[in-house]
Amino acid sequence: MLIQQTVEGFIGALASDSPAPGGGSVSALNGALAAGLLAMVCRLSVNRKDLAKSREELIKAGERALALKELLSSLVDRDTQAFNRVMNAFALPKDDDRQKKERAEAIQSAFREAVEVPLEVAADCAELLDLGSKIAEGFNPNTASDLGVGAECARAGLEGALMNVRINLPSIKDRDYVNRIRSTIDRFVDPARKRNKDIRETINPFLPDPE
Asked: What is the pTM of this model?
């Protein structure tokens, strides 16, 4: 499993001449890293006396961040598996009409998975940005850079996953399905981008420019 590799091993796999793992798995990993950072910020904030009013919110946010970390970690491998399924579908025989039909159906099914996995990554990263905005309402100021990096990782995961949705979506022939996916994206992408901007504005006072 990719997620169980060393960091060096994973980066080496990315740098190889194999098309997978690729950007989709990296997007999921960015999300998992974001979730880990947000969970850390919560843990380093929750026991501060000056944040007593935020304690319950921080506990809930930290627990959800840990759950999303597990989900996104699993999606690192699921994305590569989805890509491999597409490749395997194209390799199916097409010697007669029956085989051609089965191959076409397998390709369409594989492309749906190749859309739905990164869509899940994007939605999870959008939720992380929502969590980050809630954490930003009351957090340990010493973790401002960690909160900011977590938000940027979530943004990278979101945008990268959407790229993988967009590159696979035109291969799907079911227009109703395509339109449903696009509508789903429209519901969360702009609010998520705004959350990222809001978090950055919140942490900026804690990150003065060097003199």
From this structure: 0.95
